[in-house]
Specification:
Shape: elongated
Number of helices: 13
Structural class: alpha+beta
Distance between the termini: 77 Å
Strand content: 15-25%
Number of strands: 8
Strand order of the largest sheet: 2-3-4-5-7-8
Largest sheet: 6 strands, antiparallel
Helix content: 55-70%
Length: about 525
């Protein structure tokens, strides 16, 4: 009965224990990171735009951020998570270098022990009155091992043994000892390559990891810049559709006035109403596209700001880009592919990474070749022993070098099949070929990327010139259509179609100019300049 009561009480307490271990959602909210992100971004804003996190619960207006392209890239370099992950990987690679040196660590060990044995005395000699043979051994020891980069290992040891026995034949009780032994690998394991190869590889991996941060900085700066200009393009498109809607509303009002005055038709009014509704649909679609582009840029520059969507009901952000497309260089000499390729091969960290991977593969091959050698070790040892009935006598004996032990051994071994070493060497040779092919593929990819970027700039410049001419022609066409309408020589539908064509031409003009910005950014990314 008592056991059942305890069991029932335990089952009753389980839900309370689980609820005590549960952390409330409110306490787990990452609001601190959001607050820090908001405070940091607000440092770049004018006073009129500054907002505190404590005010967002009551705020209904969106948070307005005036950001230049440089602001966005600078924020991304500190907070983009891809870059942060690569920095952590670089720290891990640095820790691996420390771990790779562990076989060369100076090591100290100590031991202490006590053993006692007792047994009956079955055969005794005259005068031996012992009933049991008792022996107690107490030992102390300390050893220091010092490995060297040449494959040499020096071991220094000291030991002290006390042997207590009731045997009449026991002459000495204390035994001090000191030894020095040296082991030198002469074939397998000799030299710097087998002993420092893993250290060299780890150091190269750390360099590769550091360069990977540069790769991510280049890629992410490019991604941020593209997201920035995507937002600019979406906002320009939205503004043009709003302008078109405003003009369509004026045209509808004019058509209604003409109908009321008896000089217009109901068809004209319906045509303008349809045009106005179509422009409203375009505004809705464009606004949604603008919001998506804004969130993409927000996530790229400071992901912690996105947390506000989960913390505040009416949280919203408006990013106002302050960098305008630079059309001053829409004409001029096109970049030369050969010169840009040379610059890319000098700057791109991927090329440096490929070289280090080839170097690592070569080190692995050399280490694997050592593994095929037989083992031949030279071992030398020198020791001094002491013994005495008393402790002081044993030390005197040890100091006088009365008992010496020295010599050397040659230890030779041949693995008859040595499958592990042969397999390691084969994998290393394949790894070297793979590293060479990867380096060539990286180089080829960079050349193609640079060539495409150069062609992209040439094409973008031509698109800017063509879009400017197209907009000029459509603007004149729209003006002429309005004049014809005023003289009753053109229908409202023709005017509305001319307006839509003009809006489309302005959108194409905006896209072409931003496309030129993207083309320049693509070349900068291809040559490795974006992350600098």
């Amino acid at each position: 009965m008592r056991f059942r009561r305890l069991l029932g009480l335990g089952l009753l307490l389980i839900p309370f224990g689980l609820s005590a271990c549960h952390t409330p959602t409110k306490e787990a909210e990452p609001s601190e990171s959001f607050r820090a992100a908001l405070d940091e971004v607000m440092l770049r804003q004018p006073k009129a735009n500054k907002v505190k996190a404590d005010d967002l619960d009551r705020r209904r207006e969106p948070v307005v951020l005036n950001l230049s392209l440089d602001d966005c890239i600078e924020l991304a370099m500190s907070h983009n998570r891809t870059i942060l992950f690569d920095r952590l990987a670089a720290e891990v690679a640095a820790a691996n270098v420390v771990g790779a040196r562990s076989p060369l660590d100076f090591r100290i060990s100590a031991n202490i022990g006590y053993n006692r044995s007792e047994r009956p005395v079955n055969n005794s000699f005259p005068g031996d009155s012992r009933a049991r043979d008792i022996t107690a051994v107490t030992n102390y020891g300390i050893n220091a091992t010092m490995p060297f980069e040449t494959g040499t290992t020096v071991t220094i040891g000291g030991a002290f043994v006390r042997n207590d026995s009731n045997s009449p034949f026991q002459r000495f009780e204390f035994f001090p000892e000191a030894t020095v032994s040296v082991r030198q690998h002469l074939l397998n394991g000799f030299g710097f390559v087998p002993n420092l190869g893993n250290v060299w590889i780890a150091e190269n991996d750390r360099t590769i990891a550091d360069w990977q941060v540069s790769v991510s900085r280049n890629n992410q700066a490019y991604a941020v810049a593209i997201a920035y200009w995507n937002l600019v393009e979406a906002q320009n498109e939205l503004e043009l559709f709003r302008e078109e809607s405003s003009l369509a509303a004026e045209a509808l009002k004019l058509a209604q006035n003409r109908l009321d005055a008896g000089i217009g038709t109901r068809l004209e009014v319906l045509t303008q109403q349809a045009a106005l509704r179509n422009s409203e649909v375009s505004i809705i679609t464009s606004r949604n596209n603008r919001d998506n582009r804004r969130d993409e840029l927000l996530h790229a520059i400071h992901p912690d700001l996105v947390i506000g969507y989960a913390l505040f009901r009416d949280y919203a952000v408006d990013i106002i880009p302050t960098t305008n497309p630079d059309i001053s260089r829409s004409t001029g000499d096109d970049p030369v592919v050969l010169e840009e390729v040379k610059a890319a091969l000098r700057r791109r960290p991927e090329i440096m990474q490929a070289r280090k991977r080839i170097e690592n593969a070569g080190i692995s091959v050399r280490m694997g070749e050592y593994g095929l050698l037989p083992t031949l070790d030279l071992v030398g040892e020198f020791g001094v022993n002491g013994s005495g009935k008393d402790f002081e006598d044993s030390l005197d004996s040890w100091d006088d070098f009365e008992n010496l032990k020295y010599g050397f051994n040659l230890e030779f071994g041949v693995p008859l099949q040595n499958r592990a070493a042969r397999s390691t060497l084969t994998r290393a040779e394949i790894g070297r070929r793979n590293a060479l092919l990867s380096a060539r593929e990286t180089e080829t990819g960079i050349i193609i990327e640079v060539a495409g970027a150069v062609r992209g700039i040439r094409s973008a410049r031509e698109a800017v010139a063509a879009s400017d001419a197209a907009f000029k022609a459509q603007d004149e066409t729209w003006g002429a259509a309005k004049e014809r309408e005023s003289a009753d020589l053109a229908t409202p539908f023709e005017v509305q179609q001319a307006l839509k064509d003009r809006t489309a031409a302005r959108i194409n003009q905006s896209k072409a100019r931003i496309g030129l910005q993207r083309a320049r950014l693509t070349l900068m990314k291809a040559t490795g300049e974006m992350g600098r």
